[in-house]
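Predict the 3D structure for this chain.
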Amino acid sequence: MASKTTGVIRPNDHTVSSNGQAVFRRHDLSEVNLALFNDVKSTRTILRDSLRKIGFRPLNTKIVGVLGNLRSAVRQDGIDMLILEADRQPQAVHDLVRAIRSGTLGSNPFLVISIVTWRPDKERIVSFLKAGADDVIVMPASVGFASERVDSLIDNRHKFVVTTKYLGPDRRLRSRTTVDELGTILVPNGLRFKTMGDESAKPNGARLRRIGRVVDDHRLRRMTVRLEALSGQLESAFREQPDARPEAEDMRELPELVSQIALLARDGGRMKAAELIASLRAVMQAIEGAAEMHANMFALLQVYGQALLALQRGDKAASELVVRAVRTAAKVVGDRTRRESGVMVNAAIRI
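Done. Predicted structure below.
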């Protein structure tokens, strides 16, 4: 697509009249493919007319009133922006946003998503943002205000950040982002591509795959860091109170982390760590099957985290040393655990 001209806005090109007032638009939205989900008939006409006044063409606006049909539309691709009215089914809309961001619904996890609500409920608004939505607009809102929010998603959309459980716009305080070694990701933006002709924002297959690999790399690093930290916390807790029982939430998170790390490392093909991953899973299985928990078990998991981080950073010399330490530690811990508890630990723990 050729770049669009961005000169002085002329009234006959980029203005609409609403209640006798001119609403200036910085961008031509006529080529944008928009999908609107609205399951409330009483507000559907209001939203449809507002979108038309903002500049979206009715011909390119798909209005859906059933979530199943919306999921089908997302799977078919071709949508540049998604607007979701969330008042009647807030949890379902929240889950749909999460599904898109996680990549389980549709091929573009970076789709521009705005939520519309008529209820200024802070907790609900925060939950939509935590699901990965780009914006939440509380209605009623003027056409000019809504137009400015769309312009902001074109000109100043937040870069994305990846954590163990989140993919979406980065809204962290600047002080936190400056110490983050992974930083943020500039993701494709179909809305910007259609309005400005910015080829770097085009969400084509090759770009989506490339950015997807970056996302997986970031998530793998975050999960490995979390594995190391959580294992260290559990080790310290057991050393202080050997007879204590670990928190149920921690013991649910630990195998989930190991499983996700193994999946990302295998699917991405970016880490030559097959032996280490297989050993890590075996150790996790041994821990889950042990009659008693010991601090050394979690110390061993922490060393695995350190080894994986060394591999991810490309520190070959350090990673080889840590891998050798893991093998030695596994044998020592396996022997010690059997002596202390009198229970046979899964033999797979002995690498």
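Residues 11-203 form a domain with the Rossmann fold fold (CATH 3.40.50.2300).
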